[in-house]
Structures are given as C-alpha cells and as structure tokens.
From TrEMBL:
Protein name (record): Bifunctional ligase/repressor BirA
Complete-protein stretch covered: 78 to 329 of 329
EC assignment: 6.3.4.15
Residues binding biotin, per UniProt: 13-15, 46, 50-52, 117
Domain (BPL/LPL catalytic): residue spans on this chain: 1-190
The keyword ATP-binding appears for this protein: yes
Keywords per UniProt: ATP-binding, Biotin, DNA-binding, Ligase, Nucleotide-binding, Repressor, Transcription, Transcription regulation
Organism: Desulfofarcimen acetoxidans (strain ATCC 49208 / DSM 771 / KCTC 5769 / VKM B-1644 / 5575) (Desulfotomaculum acetoxidans)
C-alpha cells in the first residue's frame, strides 16, 4: 500500500479525492484509467473533512495526518465493515510503535487516549450487486497540539499525539508505519485472519464489559456492553434484560 502517493496541500476531503481517482468500473477501469489498489491520498489540510454519521472533521493545515487509502478486495459487501476494525488495529499498532503510547479503541472505531479522541476512521465504498468495487479507508490522526488544533468547545473531547507525548511527532514516520501495519493487517484479513484481528481489536477496546450508554440518531439506550460480533456490531444487554444489537451510534 502507498506506492502510488497523491499528495495535496489542500483538498476538500481526502476520501472524496480518493473516490474521484478510483473512478467507476467499466471501460475506464479496463483501460487502466482508474487508480490501482493501494493508492494513498494525503493532504496538509482538508476544507471539508468528513466524519462518521454525517459529521464534519476538523483538519487544519499541518496539524495532523489526513489520509485515505484505496483498496479493491474481491469480497462481498457484508464483510466490508471488518476493514474499519482492522484499520483501527493497524493505526493503534503504528502509534504504539512510533510514539510509544498505547491508545485504546472506542467502539466503533475511534482511537482514544485517556478518554480523549486521537484518531477517527471513515470507511466508504462503492459496490455493484453484492460485490465490492472499491473501499476507501480514511484515517485522521491529530498530531499537533490540541490547543491550536481543536475548536475550544470540543477541546475537552479531543487530544493529539504531541499533547500526549510532549514532543513533536514525525508525520512521515507515522504515515509509513500506518501503511506498513495496514498492509500487514489487510493481507492477513484477505487470507482469512479476521478472527485473530478481532481478538486484538477486542483486547484494546475500552467499550466492552461495562455499563454504557449508546446514543443512536433517535434514542439513548443503557446497558451492559457484552461483545462485538464479526460485523462490528455492539451487543448490549439492556437494563430490562433484552439484548440489542447496534451497528452504529456513540458509546459513552
Ligand atoms: C470520525 O471519527 O467520525 C471519522 C473521521 C475521519 C476523518 C478522516 S481525515 C481523512 C479522511 N478524509 C475525510 O474527509 N475523513 C477522513
């Protein structure tokens, strides 16, 4: 991954750019006009960075790693979600390696350090029938200090690598490590290694085996977070004993 690098100073969103360069299947694809698997889109700044659940993602100039990787696995739609979980594992490993800290994974796929968010992941895809055409894995890692990075009203929920370690972080080194770990995880996923990756994901997840609140678009549910299944869904034992499955939401 990352042999074809498309670097931009400013883009609206690296995910949008990657999707644009991925193009459509059909003639353009057969004629080799579309970007190949592994393409990395990376930018200094995003003017329209996007997050999960239609949220925006603050991505100021030089203050983080704003990157998207194009993948073209021959898999069916149902397991694409696993790729997001695998990405969280890969970024967690890379941050641990390069910065010497151990972030936790918050369901569904944030990386946190001492309860504050360090990294977000947004996976998007294009499919035909039930087959995947491509997946774009978007990763945002806050590297610079939170003071200048985050609008004051959300500072308390966000952190950055330099704030945590008290040192500047080499973005190049971290991007290289993320790509290396992502490639290793991706290869092992393609070879059927998801169960082990899921175990690794769970062992670093801070949202399991505890009393939590899950906020969906319309409601808030409270209960005991029992497990995460292989679709990435969170299983919550509600206070009334019923077991409810969540595919998206915010857990606290
Ligand atoms: C989230 O936590 O809600 C996901 C945030 C994902 C942000 C990254 S930054 C690079 C890529 N491009 C985007 O527009 N979003 C993702």
């Amino acid at each position: 991954l990352g042999r074809d690098v498309r670097y931009f100073e400013i883009v609206d969103s690296t995910n949008n750019k990657a999707k644009e360069l991925a193009g459509f299947k059909g003639l353009s694809h057969e004629a080799g006009l579309t970007a190949a698997e592994g393409m990395l889109v990376i930018a200094e700044e995003q003017t329209g960075g996007r997050g999960r659940l239609g949220r925006s993602w603050h991505a100021p100039y030089g203050k983080g790693i704003w990157m998207s990787v194009l993948l073209r696995p021959q898999v069916c739609l149902e397991i694409v979600y696993q790729m997001t979980m695998i990405t969280a594992v890969a970024v967690m490993r890379a941050v641990r390696e390069v910065c010497g800290i151990a972030p936790e994974i918050k369901w569904p796929n944030d990386l946190q350090y001492e309860g504050k968010k360090l990294c977000g992941i947004l996976t998007e895809m294009s499919a035909e029938a039930d087959r995947v055409n491509y997946i774009v894995v978007g990763i945002g890692i806050n590297t610079a200090s939170a003071g200048d990075l985050i609008p004051p009203q959300i500072t308390h929920q966000m952190t950055s690598l330099s704030e945590i370690t008290g040192k500047p972080v080499s973005r190049v080194k971290l991007v290289q490590e993320v790509l290396q770990e992502l490639e290793a995880c991706y290869d092992s996923w393609l070879a059927g290694g998801f169960p082990e990756l899921l175990e690794e994901w769970k062992s670093h997840c801070n949202s399991l085996n505890r009393q939590v609140a899950v906020k969906t678009l319309h409601e808030v549910y409270t209960g005991w977070s029992m497990d995460v299944n292989s679709d990435g869904a969170l299983l919550l034992k509600l206070d009334n004993g019923e077991i409810k499955k969540f595919v998206s939401g915010d857990v606290s």
